[in-house]
Write a structure and sequence with these properties.
Blueprint (H helix, E strand, L loop, with lengths): L1 E2 L2 H18 L10 E7 L4 H11 L3 E6 L5 H12 L3 E7 L9 H7 L4 E4 L9 E4 L3 E4 L6 H5 L3 E7 L1 H16 L2 E2 L7
Parallel strand pairs: 3-4, 4-5
Antiparallel strand pairs: 1-2, 2-8, 3-6, 5-9, 6-7, 7-8
Length: about 180
């Protein structure tokens, strides 16, 4: 289910205040942003993410804790094939998970990294074309779409995307290149 409501703007402001408190940065005043909300189970989160990936023109930066969604992985591979620069940072649990899209993305040539510097690299974000941020509780998994109570926000705002991209780059600096599972 999707909605465009003024409550979303209030939620975004609250979220930004929390981000600011966590990172100890000065606040960011957002005067205009296109915000869409999706909820699962069955709310179309995966389809909305795939749609945004399919619209990407220049770059996609991803951070994920758990990444097993085949539709999202295929959309990422397709974006890479059409010339979009894609880079992915995943939590270290993706090294040993029974299934992780990390092996798929590496095998399709998408630069994939492991952030092992934290107890859990729990970010779930995509920054698309340095303008669109996808974030929320939604793990990029089948269970998140079909079974769990999850949410995403899709926010179009260059200033906010810049903040997320700066944080993504900080995590990229300490992440290790993922070359796939040993023995594969």
């Amino acid at each position: 289910m999707t909605s465009r409501i003024s409550i979303a703007s209030a939620f975004l402001l609250l979220m930004l205040m929390m981000v600011t408190a966590c990172s100890q940065e000065k606040g960011l005043q957002i005067n205009t942003a296109d915000i869409r909300t999706f909820f699962s189970p069955g709310g179309g989160c995966t389809d909305a993410i795939v749609e945004e990936i399919d619209k990407a023109k220049s770059d996609i930066n991803i951070q994920a804790y758990s990444f097993t969604s085949k539709p999202i992985a295929r959309a990422i591979a397709n974006a890479h094939k059409r010339g979009v620069r894609v880079e992915i940072i995943l939590d270290k649990s993706n090294r040993s998970a029974k299934y992780s899209a990390a092996d798929f993305t590496v095998n399709t040539g998408v630069p994939t990294y492991i952030d092992a510097s934290h107890a859990i690299a729990h970010n779930k974000i995509m920054i698309i074309d340095q303008e669109t941020v996808i974030t929320g509780s939604f793990n990029f998994t089948k269970a998140a779409e079909e079974s769990n109570a999850e949410n995403i926000l899709i926010i179009r705002n260059k200033d906010l995307a810049g903040r997320y991209l700066n944080n993504w780059q900080l995590h990229r600096q300490h992440s290790e290149v993922y070359k796939g599972r040993q023995g594969n």
